[in-house]
Specification:
2,3-Dihydroxybiphenyl 1,2-Dioxygenase, domain 1; alpha/beta; four-stranded mixed β-sheet; 2 helices; about 130 residues; 8 strands
Length: about 130
């Protein structure tokens, strides 16, 4: 019945800062950008190489996330990478603080976390 994840939607507090982070630092491709006057809201569609998308939204005065990853709801968003070490080095070079690399006790694969400009936890996983 379900085949794949089509997209993930993220609401940001500072549209320009988040757009820069996801396009310049994470290098996601812009598919479309729309400003919806009646909602005072931007919607930015971003493509990943596998065809899935992130939707970045801005709304006037959105509430903050209740707490870090253990808050009820979406825990984190994870991205698959070819080389976790190279990706961490790149992110650090862009001024992004990344946690130490760990090994998942169940899969034996390397992973780590960093945060987007609003503190949304993002994970990178070794393929």
């Amino acid at each position: 019945m379900l085949k794949s994840i089509h997209h993930v939607a993220i609401i940001c507090s500072d549209y320009s800062r988040s757009k820069d982070f996801y396009t310049r630092i994470l290098k996601l491709e812009v598919v479309a950008e729309t400003y919806r006057q009646q909602r005072q809201s931007y919607k930015l569609d971003l493509a990943l190489p596998d065809g899935s998308e992130l939707e970045l939204f801005s709304f006037p005065s959105p509430p903050s996330r209740p707490s870090n990853p253990e808050a009820q709801g979406l825990r984190h968003l994870a991205f698959d990478v070819d080389s976790i070490e190279q990706t961490v080095a790149y992110l650090n070079g862009q001024g992004v603080e990344v946690e130490p690399i760990r090994i998942d006790e169940l899969t034996g694969k390397a992973f780590t976390f960093f945060k987007d400009p609003d503190g949304l936890p993002l994970e990178i996983c070794q393929s």
